[in-house]
Amino acid sequence: MQIKALEYKYFNHIPFSKIEKKYNTYNSKKTVNLTEDEFKSILSNLFTIKYLFPEFAGQINLKGFQMLNHVYFSSNITIEFGWLMIENLDRSYLNWYNELLNNSYDISNILLDNELHDFVEQALIDYMAYRKIEYGKFFLQRYTKVILDVNNIFNYEKIKKRIENTPKPLKLIADNIKMVNPDLSVDEYLFLMFIIKNAILKSDNAAIDYAFVNSIVKNDFFKIDNNREIYRVTINKTLNMNWEINKGRGGHKL
Q: What is the pLDDT of residues 166-183, one digit of tens each?
């Protein structure tokens, strides 16, 4: 199977609460026809819940509703990626997509619609076996923009040179993160390590990093989301400290 890289087109996600309010307030009919952006929003919502929480069993709990309505920053990234996948649907699913788009729905039960769930599972979730590296890259780039401003790193070029010239760049980054914050979990150290590595080196050849990010987000979604400020402080302190060169050999410092 040949899978083309996703092409970014546009993003106009509508929170579920707004869709629900619109039709519950202005339309007395039992079923309604959605606009295409509303329909894509519903699909990307379902994709997010099903991908991040595969144990989902047909019931949306409080956290699920909060996710649908943009309470969690990290779920917004996944919602946007789901939308991106919808914009790049495999041609074999376009007829099914258009049939579903033209259906009428009961808004109070739309998130439990079996055919929508089947579509999301087959047209989106099943493709994540091939898209997980793209998702990891997309998530890392979006998340990094919020917690790290490379332009504010006063010794950026020296750190970049130091990372490029060391035989074990990831260990170097991890050691410096631990000096700032020794209380993170292994997954958190890995996550911050990948953020720094990719922000500093800007390499397109980081498929393994992105695959790890995909797994970390799925395993520790709420930790990744809730600790955003801790990570921001840790990373910025790490990148603005003096990284030692030739430690223990009388070398100089950056």
A: 888 888 999 999 999 999
Backbone phi, psi, residue 139, to 5°: -65, -45
Distance (Å, rounded) from C-alpha 128 to C-alpha 51?
A: 9
Q: Which residues pair with 186 in a beta bridge?
A: none
pTM for the full predicted model: 0.88
CA distances from 57 to 28, 43, 44, 220 (A): 30, 16, 17, 20
As a whole number of Å, the end-to-end CA separation of the chain is 49
Give the three-state DSSP class for 105: strand
- 244 forms beta bridges with 253
- 69-75 long-range contacts (CB < 8 A, ≥24 apart) are 69/15, 69/16, 69/17, 70/15, 72/222, 72/225, 73/146, 73/225, 73/228, 74/139, 74/143, 74/217, 74/221, 74/224, 74/225, 75/48, 75/221, 75/225
Mean pLDDT score of the chain: 86
Facing residues of 32 across strands?
105
Using DSSP, state whether 215 is helix, strand or coil: helix
CA 215 vs. chain centroid, Å, equals 11
